[in-house]
Amino acid sequence: MTIMTSKKYSNLSLPLELRLPEREPEMPASTLLIIDLEATCWEHRQAPNGEAQSNDNMEIIEIGCALATRQGRLLDTRSFLVRPTRHPVLSEFCTGLTSITQEMVDEAPAFPGAIQAMNAWLGDLPDDFIWCSWGNYDRLHLEAQSQEHDARPAVLAFPHLNLKRIWRRTTGQKRKNGFAHALAFHDLAFEGHHHRGVDDARNMVRVLPYMNWALKPELLTPPEIMV
């Protein structure tokens, strides 16, 4: 996948309904972005057409974002809701899991519009910027859906860090343990709604101070090629 992008985006290029409050223009050193995606899903992992649920038929319905420093200082959060187009009606199971309702996605832009809004919110990104997620699912799904819709998230021009990997390397915990275990390991209780992207991302900020950041260079996934 090849991403053609620029680091400069503006709210002024967006329709009025997609414009968001501007964040502070300057990011502190070592700022990173945590992304947590929520996607369409169904009970028993079966899509309405009978297909087994997979990344190929799940559509992103939320891009949860948290900007923070490596030391765990939360700078800003945003929830970019997305209107699915392949399966536009959310299942009751999906709404129950994520708390995202049909009305919420009906009022949201489709994927390219949500990416436009996210790019405008992020603005100019520093050269040392990285983005993160808990595991590689979010990176792979964001890349795949961006390619499908010819959308260009600015973050894909920057390295990605798998927080699950660096946390496990730091603590020596077993591979099978998930994010809930990571919070419990540090005596932290989840704040907000489980499986709501912005809340998941915000909670990931709380474990950043426990990471061994000296491991970062060897664990980064290089960005997509820019042309």
From TrEMBL:
Domain of life: Bacteria
Any one GO biological process: DNA metabolic process
Keywords from the UniProt entry: Exonuclease, Hydrolase, Nuclease
Single annotated GO MF: 3'-5'-RNA exonuclease activity
Residue ranges of domain Exonuclease in the record: 31-217
Family matches, as InterPro entries: 3-5_Exoribonuclease, ERI-1_3'hExo-like, Ribonucl_H, RNaseH-like_sf, RNaseH_sf
Protein's recorded name: Exonuclease, RNase T and DNA polymerase III
